[in-house]
Amino acid sequence: MRLLAALLAGGLLLGGCAPHVAAEPGALTYLGQFRLFPGTDFDGTVVGGLSALSYDAGRDRYYVLSDDRSNIGPARFYTVRLDLSERGIDDVVVTGMQPLLDETGQPFPPRDFGASPPVVPPDPEGLAFDARRQRLYWSSEGERRPPVLADPWVRTAGLDGAFLGEFDLPPVLAMSERETGPRRNSALEGLTLTPDGRFLYAGMERPGYNDGDPPDRDHGALVRITKLDVETGEPVAQYAYPLEPAGAPARSNGLTDLVALSESRFLVIERAGAPRPVVRLFYADIADATDVLGTAALTAASVTPMTKTLALDLTAAPEISPLDNIEGITLGPRLPDGRQSVVLVSDDNFSPRQITQFLALAIQD
After folding, report:
1. pLDDT at residue 19 in the model
2. Can you tell me the distance from the alpha carbon of 306 to that of 287, in angstroms, rounded to the nearest whole number?
3. Own/partner pairs for 303-309, CB < 8 Å, 24+ apart?
4. Which has the least CB within 10 A, 88, 97, 188, 276?
5. In angstroms, rounded to a whole number, what is the distance separating the alpha carbons of residues 212 and 135?
6. Contact, 127 vs 201, CB < 8 A?
7. What is the radius of gyration, based on Cα positions, of the chain?
């Protein structure tokens, strides 16, 4: 029945295919996209709010995280099969749904701030698969509605969703009733594991109160990317990533996800919202960036940020249409011509006015 539901939930192949032409090393080429039908249902849940994805090469499947805060269904992730080729994405089939479980082994209940103590479900945003250890890492942005406070977290889960542990995070990521720490809905948004499996990087969407104002149309900002040791569960470094100004007509900009190409180099999504998404991909490198793990406020320190170069402005590419709220990125399989595939996913916010789309790109080696 699940497979039948997945097939019935099929989608639309849109956006065309870009021909493979010679390009400079590192250039990103758009291949095509596939949209799920609005309101796609699987295993009694609405497939929506997709905020992150990570590729499992051994099983040739993707783990795709929903940011549903147990409002529509349980906090959860899906397993998805993508038929990926040099033409783009020929098909997307949802093959499984797994609730994320709390420390007691139960799905997270819906929010109840009036309870004593308040029930605060997670706000799932980042996801990374660990092939060597066969487990998942996932992040929650926490909650900040004083007096209700819940710190962001990075947790470890089994492929069955079971709670396996939690990373320690630096104090600057703790929520507070005062104007310190992360802003609401702007904390840990992106998560990626280095290719060697030693380190996990967790990126904030926008700066915390300690680190200055969020980006606006004319000004950028610095956000923190935390380096976590997978074996010890401890933070070992932290770096400042420079966000671009949002630019007109958008009002703000943020980091929505990143994928590690090495221990120090990444592809980063920056997305500015409203009235229509502005989505840009950047290559970013730690290089000579300052370790700010012990720095309480970036505005009060001399900081060398990470370096970055524009990889692809999705908004400016006429062949990438439609384009919605892109929030997740992962490296997929190698294509038949040897190029490295990159897969993106959008978060439709469970809105009938938005779409759930998977985009395929290729990196020229």
Report:
1. 39
2. 7
3. 303/222, 303/240, 304/240, 305/222, 305/239, 305/240, 305/241, 305/242, 306/225, 306/239, 306/240, 306/241, 306/242, 308/241, 308/242, 308/268, 308/282, 308/283, 308/284, 309/282, 309/283
4. 276
5. 35
6. no
7. 19
Q: Which pLDDT tens digit goes with each residue over 10-29?
A: 455 544 444 334 467 689 99
pLDDT in tens, 118-130: 999 999 999 999 9
Q: Report the pLDDT value the prediction gives residue 233, as an integer from 0 to 100.
A: 98
Distance, CA of 332 to CA of 47 (rounded, Å):
21
Do the beta carbons of residue 295 and residue 282 sit within 8 Å? no
Task: Please give, one letter per residue, the 3-state secondary structure of the chain.
Answer: CHHHHHHHCCEEEECCCCCCCCCCCCCEEEEEEEEECCCCEECCEECCCEEEEEEECCCCEEEEEECCCCCCCCCEEEEEEEEEECCEEEEEEEEEEEECECCCCCECCCCECCCCCCECCCCEEEEEEECCCCEEEEEECCEEECCEEECCEEEEECCCCCEEEECCCCHHHCCCCCCCCCCCCCCEEEEEECCCCCEEEEEECCCCHHHCCCCCCCCCEEEEEEEEECCCCCEEEEEEEEECCCCCCCCCEEEEEEEECCCCEEEEEEEECCCCCEEEEEEEECCCCCCCCCCCCHHHCCCCCCEEEEEEECCCCCCCCCCCCEEEEEEEEECCCCCEEEEEEECCCCCCCCCCEEEEEEECC
269, 256 Cβ separation under 8 angstroms: yes
Query: CB neighbours (10 Å) of residue 15?
Result: 22
Give the pLDDT confidence score for residue 3 in this predicted structure.
Answer: 34
Give me the pLDDT at residue 23, please: 60
Mean of the per-residue pLDDT values of the chain: 93
- Give the residue ranges of the chain where pLDDT is below 70: 1-23, 25
**pLDDT tens string 288-302:** 999 999 999 999 889
Say which amino acid occupies 214. Answer: P
Q: Which pLDDT score is estimated for 12? A: 55
